[in-house]
Predict the structure of Sucraseferredoxin-like protein.
Amino acid sequence: MGPPLEDLDITPEQREENISAQLKDSAESKRALIVKVSHVGGHKYAGNCIIYTPSGSGVWYGRVTPHDIESIVENTIVKGLVLPPLLRGGLNLSKPNCKSLNDW
């Protein structure tokens, strides 16, 4: 991953181009759709990250900052681990033979 987007001194259009280029450069067989969200409950300054998997599970994170994104991608999307400090809810998080939410 590159530097945090807020550290780049670029226009919003350049930011979108930067994001698109990074996603295309790192494209593999597994893909994630990333879309903007203006507000999903909570405080207006609480970042929100909603992740749904093809298996039907979903995890909802709140108070997400740009600095949390790399950890969310590496741990939740790639490794399937829930990050308890950010967890606000979800769907089908508990599965048979899983000892905790971290094993979804």
Observations:
- The beta strands are 48-52, 58-62, 87-91.
